[in-house]
Amino acid sequence: MIRKISILLCLLATLKLVCAESTNQTMTKIVYRDISTNFLSSSFAAQPRTDYRSGEKYGRTEEAPDPALKIHGLIIVNEPDAWIINLMTKTGIHDLDGGPTYIFHAPIVGFEGKSQAEFQAFKSLLISKFEFGKEMEFLKTYKAKKLSDHYELIIDDYRIELFPKAGTEIPYRLKIFKGKSQISYLQYDEYKTDLPLDLSLFTPPPGIKISERQP
């Protein structure tokens, strides 16, 4: 009986520790938009997007409504599960990460090729590891130059210029060039770290008809 009580107490202590760790988890919220001259300010491509992430397990992307295509996109990741949802039609697709690792990524530079070989080649580039929520970490890891008003890093065939808010390391504007061409110019309207983790953000909202992704 004493041994059973001891085991029970150990399990209870472990549960309290796990709960405490879960409670202490935080998340990052980022609101950004494309301000390059490639898009009209009224176009869907120029509308703000909101990202949430917590560690390597949780991610959420909220897009603005696109009335022309009848899409209001919402992407939720709760590794190994992911959902791609259209809030306008209240439908979604559930997908499962095939592993072997279950790590959430939020790449800033997207894959532009078509073939699997091109995709694997892109994944081998360091620029593919440049992610929302880890911008400064990436720049410091790869020894970016600190200039008067921004950080600059040349990596692979890309040049990153990140402008932080004055007196901080919080991203404000971000320019990315490939070769001599600017491929992205983003403005961060909001960048908050260490927010309390809200697990409700990482599950599909009620009222959505979910179907499984077809292999």
Structural overview:
With 215 residues, the chain is of the alpha+beta class. The protein has a single domain (25-212), classed as outer membrane lipoprotein receptor (LolB), chain A (Clam), CATH 2.50.20. Helix content is 17%, strand content 40%. The protein has three helices and twelve strands; from the N terminus they run H-E-E-E-E-E-E-H-H-E-E-E-E-E-E. The chain has helices at 2-23, 116-123, 135-141; strands spanning 26-34, 49-54, 58-66, 71-78, 81-86, 91-96, 145-146, 151-155, 158-164, 171-178, 181-196, 209-212. The longest helix has 22 residues, at 2-23.
Key traits:
215 residues, alpha+beta, outer membrane lipoprotein receptor (LolB), chain A, twelve-stranded mixed β-sheet, 3 helices, 12 strands, 40% strand, globular, disordered N terminus
Please indicate the percent range of residues in DSSP E strands (runs of 2 or more): 35-45%
Tally of DSSP helical segments: 3
CATH topology: outer membrane lipoprotein receptor (LolB), chain A
Largest sheet: 12 strands, mixed
Q: Tell me which CATH architecture applies here.
A: Clam
Strand-pairing-aware structural class = alpha+beta
Helix content: 10-25%
Low-confidence stretches: 1-23
In the CATH hierarchy, what is the class? Mainly Beta
Shape: globular
The end-to-end distance, rounded to whole angstroms, is 52 Å
